[in-house]
Specification:
This protein is of the alpha/beta class. The protein has eleven helices and eight strands. The chain has two domains: about 60 residues, no CATH class; about 160 residues, 2-Layer Sandwich (Nucleotidyltransferase, domain 5), CATH 3.30.420.10. Helices cover about 45% and strands about 15% of the residues. Helix 6 links the parallel strand 7 and strand 8. Helix 1 packs antiparallel against helix 2. The chain is globular and about 55 Å long. It starts with a helix and ends with a helix.
């Protein structure tokens, strides 16, 4: 499914956010070996959090048209008992749902786990006894899927959280994550100067006062404040959610070109 997400997004962007049913079916045919028809794949795309919807006689990428301020963002963090999803698991999930600059919902849970290494307990303060009676991995991940819906997946260092959760989702039959991803480190680097962009450093330098660090909900909340700081100086040419996603990964040359093109 990841190939389908990427291919569709690329084609949508080249066609002003719209594609015909024929073009959509062509992409599906070339990028899947599944036996489901294109309508079934469409339902799977939506269920995975990919922001696609039917429009007239084709489809549209919703993030291409949604103003970034009106978009829903699921800003999350996970704590794990190791760094590799093939041999480790999530032990805590924390997330806030944000829209129009305000937190509109929250999600927080421990995850059942039989073993937490001492070094993880030292970093996070989470001990194995804290996880007794917590939701199972399958239950916790299902709850997270329901919470995220088709919001933008936001994390501080999204390159860790996104693939770890994708692997975890697949392990329990929940499929790939189709939600577009946004990294608050990348966004911060393009909007304000700082000697360091680690969350602990930014908490201090931006006067983000939270009780704990390396706890999922607290770190998700910190990432929200970092994102708010970034949006204070976002360029005028960033209007839609898709503009914001592309800006967050743009090169200095691309940003300079955009500024020159802006009236």
């Amino acid at each position: 499914m990841q190939k389908i997400f990427e291919q569709l997004t690329s084609v949508f962007r080249k066609n002003s956010g719209y594609i015909s049913r024929e073009r959509y079916e062509d992409i599906i045919l070339k990028n899947t070996t599944l036996f489901e028809d294109s309508d079934t794949i469409f339902l799977l795309l939506q269920a995975s959090g990919y922001p696609i919807s039917e429009y007239q006689d084709g489809y549209r990428l919703d993030t291409y048209f949604t103003p970034y301020k009106e978009q829903k963002y699921c800003i999350l963090d996970i704590e794990t008992n190791g760094s590799k999803p093939v041999s480790s698991q999530v032990i805590e999930i924390g997330a806030v749902m944000v829209q129009n600059g305000k937190i509109i919902d929250r999600f927080e849970t421990f995850v059942e786990c039989a073993f937490v290494p001492p070094y993880i307990s030292k970093i996070t303060g989470i001990e194995q006894k804290d996880l007794i009676g917590a939701p199972s991995r399958a239950k916790a991940l299902t709850m997270l899927r329901e919470f995220m819906q088709d919001a933008i997946f936001v994390a501080h260092n999204v390159s860790f959280d996104y693939p770890f959760l994708t692997a975890s989702f697949n392990r329990f039959g929940l499929g790939d994550i189709g939600n577009p991803q946004l990294c608050t480190i990348n966004l911060a680097k393009r909007t304000f100067k700082s000697p360091k962009y680690g969350l602990a450093y930014l908490n201090e330098s931006l006067n983000i006062e939270l009780v704990t660090h390396h706890r999922a909900y607290s770190d998700a909340l910190s990432a929200f404040f970092v994102m708010q700081k970034s949006l204070e100086t976002i360029p005028e040419y960033v209007l839609s959610t898709d503009d914001l996603l592309r800006f967050s990964t743009s090169s200095q040359r691309e940003r300079g070109q955009k500024r020159r093109e802006t009236p």
